[in-house]
Design goal:
Blueprint lengths: L27 E5 L4 H12 L3 E6 L2 H4 L2 H7 L3 E6 L5 H15 L4 E4 L15 H29 L2 E6 L12 H21 L4 E8 L5 H4 L8 H8 L8 H12 L10 E4 L7
Parallel strand pairs: 1-2, 1-4, 2-3, 4-5, 5-6, 6-7
Helix pairs in contact: 1-9, 4-5, 5-6
Length: 272
């Protein structure tokens, strides 16, 4: 049986930027984890709205075609192969973006890791370390190296991608949830520290989304989409493009008075 998502008509395609609302024109946006899912959809959407996108991912195959698609649509983008847990690499990305493009206007800290549901009593210690390294240290390093640049130039926006598990307890996802609670803490602290310097820091809390984390790397059905869809009040999981639309709101002037916020985009699942 097809899920409600399969009948859902929402689609975002790469369209020529000529005549498109280019509200981010002249801005430089670094998007981590841009090779797939929410990161890829975000990179495409920010480029459609005029930003020069620096698409970052640790897997080169994930970035294949992304820059070509953006350029073919009249946008501006480049790709960088880097690991968000590598402090020197992250610092170089931020400094280079500011130096070459003139400013670092937007950072979307999207790269993340997830494991299959496992009770805490059985959770592998190495898997725990990996979750914390990517989901917490990766976000911390993005903030650590982007904020000094943004503070020095007197403006900028950081959007950290957290998770619904920061507000909704789900059995088997304790360590993952803990890592996302940490993202919320980093977001709120950075917001009050950087706000006086003209820099906003916010957080997106996605619900289940049609990404490799739900479908598996090959995009094949594994039962997770149907299971999540049955729990979500809207009856389906989210498309990556829907999450990207929320990112656009939080990194653009549309949310100019939003700082330290955690925006749930989950179809109502948090309260179900």
């Amino acid at each position: 049986m097809p899920t409600a998502l399969h009948a859902y008509a929402y689609r975002v395609t790469m369209q020529p930027t000529t005549g498109h609302d280019r509200e981010l024109a002249g801005q430089t946006a670094v998007v981590t984890g841009a090779g797939s899912g929410i990161g890829r959809a975000t990179a495409q959407l920010l480029a459609l709205h005029g930003a020069h996108v620096v698409a970052v991912d640790r897997r080169p195959e994930g970035l294949e075609g992304l820059v070509v698609e953006i350029l073919a649509a009249g946008g501006s983008a480049e790709s960088v192969i880097a690991d968000v847990t590598d402090s020197a690499a992250v610092a170089e990305i931020m400094l280079t973006a500011a130096r070459v493009r003139g400013s670092l206007d937007i950072l979307v800290n999207n790269a993340g890791a997830l494991t299959a549901p496992v009770p805490i009593a059985e959770f592998d210690e190495r898997a725990f370390d990996r979750l914390m390294n990517v989901n917490v240290k990766g976000v911390f390093l993005g903030l650590r190296h982007a904020l000094p640049v943004m503070i020095a130039q007197g403006h900028g926006v950081v959007l950290n991608v957290g998770s619904i598990t920061a507000v909704k307890t789900i059995a088997g996802l304790g360590p993952y949830s803990a890592s996302k609670h940490a993202v919320t803490a980093l977001t709120r602290t950075a917001a009050i520290e950087a706000g006086p310097h003209g820099v906003r820091v916010n957080e997106l809390l996605p619900g289940p989304t049609l990404t490799p984390m739900v479908t598996g790397p090959a995009g094949s059905p594994n039962g997770a989409e149907d299971a999540f869809s049955a729990q979500v009040p809207l009856g389906r999981v989210s498309l990556p493009q829907e999450q990207a639309e929320a990112v656009l709101f939080l990194v653009s002037a549309r949310s100019s008075y939003v700082n330290g916020a955690s925006l749930l985009v989950d179809g109502g699942l948090a309260w179900a």
